[in-house]
Amino acid sequence: MSRERSGGRAPNELRPVTIEPGFVKTATGSALISCGGTRVICTASVQESVPRWLVGKGRGWMTAEYGMLPASTGERKQRDISKGRADGRSVEIQRLIGRSLRGIADLEALGERTIYVDCDVLEADGGTRCASITGGYVALALAVQRLQSQGLLTKSPLTGTIAAVSCGVVDGVPMLDLNYPEDSTAEVDANVVMTGEGGLVEVQATAERTPLSRAHLDELLALAQTGIEGLREAQEAALR
Ligand code: UDP
C-alpha cells in the first residue's frame, strides 16, 4: 500500500537538512542541525582532564548529554533538572550519542582530556537522537579543528565521520527519516548509526505491531545508507 508523505516526499528521501556551524560562539565547537521540523543545538566543550577511572591511562574520553527544551514538543515537557534526574529515555539517548561518537574516535590521540557533546532539542518532530549524532559530529569535528589550530594535538582523534538516520515501516512501506506523525504510527521504527564509509556502528529496530521481516530489514538498511550519504554531504558542507 502506498502512503502519501507530508511535503510529497518519496519513501527514500531525507527531510531537508541544514547544518549551521559555529552556532554557539562560547563553545569550542558547535552546530545547529535542522532535519525538517527537528532542530537540535549541538555543542562540544573541552575539559583538560579525564574521569577518575582514566587518570594516568594516556587516553582521553568523549561523552554526551541530551535534553529536550520544554517547548520542543507539542505539550510542555518538564526539564530534567526540575525532576532531579534525567528520564530513562534521555539517559538511553545520551549513551547512544556517546557510543556513536566514540565509534570514530582514537582516544589515545586525544590525550588526557574530555570532550563533552551536549545536544539540546529546540524542536522535536521525530529523529531527535539521529539529528543529535549527525550534528554532534560536526560540533565535535569543529572542536578538534580548534585544538589542532592551537597545536594541542599531534594526530587527529577522529578516525572517520559518523551520522545517523531513522527509518521504519509505515503502512507496510519501508521509509527513510520518519517525522513524528510517521514515527508514531510506524509498525517498525529503526535508528541506524553509520560511518561515512558505510560501516554500521549501531542499529536499533523495534517492531511493536508487526514482526520485522528480514527482507524489510535489508530494505531499511539500504534506505539508511542512502540517507547517511546525504547527511554526510551536509556535514562536509558545514565543515568546509
Ligand atoms: N516525543 C515527544 N515527547 C517526548 C518524547 C518524544 O513529543 O517526551 C516525540 C518527539 O517528536 C520525538 C518523537 O516523539 O522526536 C519520537 O521520539 P523517540 O523516543 O522515538 O525519539 P527520536 O525519534 O526523537 O529519536
UniProtKB/TrEMBL annotation:
Phosphate binds at R89, G127, T128, R129. Phosphorolytic 3'-5' exoribonuclease that plays an important role in tRNA 3'-end maturation. Removes nucleotide residues following the 3'-CCA terminus of tRNAs; can also add nucleotides to the ends of RNA molecules by using nucleoside diphosphates as substrates, but this may not be physiologically important. Probably plays a role in initiation of 16S rRNA degradation (leading to ribosome degradation) during starvation. Belongs to the RNase PH family. This is Ribonuclease PH. Its EC number is 2.7.7.56. Keywords: Nucleotidyltransferase, RNA-binding, rRNA processing, Transferase, tRNA processing, tRNA-binding. The lineage of its organism: Bacteria, Bacillati, Actinomycetota, Thermoleophilia, Solirubrobacterales. InterPro entries: ExoRNase_PH_dom1, ExoRNase_PH_dom2, ExoRNase_PH_dom2_sf, PNPase/RNase_PH_dom_sf, Ribosomal_Su5_D2-typ_SF, RNase_PH, RNase_PH_bac-type. One of its GO terms (biological process) is rRNA 3'-end processing.
